[in-house]
Design goal:
The structure is a single chain. By secondary structure, this protein is mainly alpha-helical. It contains seven helices and two strands; from the N terminus they run αααβαβααα. It has a single domain, classed as Rossmann fold, CATH 3.40.50.300. Helix 4 links the parallel strand 1 and strand 2. The longest helix has 22 residues. It comes from Methylomonas koyamae.
């Protein structure tokens, strides 16, 4: 049985963890050295994910059009809303939800995508078109891939062209 004091102590430790990344990235060194910091976290609620959200100015939620992935996306959307309720100013900007590994031939994936499009809060945040499932993405992320990145592939490679288009959309949403 946990006592009230143990719960308060655990809560204050968790809040210190959540605040740590924001405090660190606010230091002059990081502000002067970096124009952009990208933090990739798992899509579930944890102190690490909450810490990244607290430090962030913008949030991108990639998600597959699968039931478990969409549940993780919903957790991230709730984290976004909760973080903004805590902030007095400089709200956390949701730059978009990026559907990944999308197979337009899958009726289940099409239905899931349609449900997100129709969602009152998240529907207009969806980045169009969805990122298709291409084997090139899987190959480029393998440990010993050659080339090491899809951005090192020929510029006419469909996966590279598609990824560059998404990068352009994301860049415009952050810096416009």
């Amino acid at each position: 049985m946990t006592t009230f004091l143990e719960q308060v102590e655990r809560s204050s430790i968790q809040e210190a963890v959540v605040e740590h990344m924001r405090a660190m990235l606010s230091m002059d060194y990081y502000q002067e050295e970096f124009d952009l910091v990208i933090i990739d976290t798992p899509p579930q609620t944890s102190a690490l994910t909450a810490s990244a959200a607290r430090a962030a100015t913008h949030l991108l939620i990639p998600t597959e059009m699968q039931e478990d992935s969409v549940a993780g996306m919903a957790d991230m959307a709730q984290l976004w809303q909760a973080e903004n309720q805590m902030r007095q100013e400089a709200k956390l900007q949701l730059i978009g939800i990026l559907a990944t590994k999308y197979d337009p031939q899958s009726a289940a994936q099409r239905r899931t995508l349609d449900q997100i499009v129709q969602n009152e809060i998240l529907g207009d945040k969806l980045i169009h078109p969805p990122m298709r499932y291409l084997q090139t993405y899987a190959n480029s992320s393998a440990t010993y891939a050659n080339p090491r990145s899809l951005f090192e592939m020929h510029e006419n490679t469909p996966a590279r062209a598609e990824a560059e288009q998404f990068c352009k959309i994301i860049f415009e949403r952050i810096f416009s």
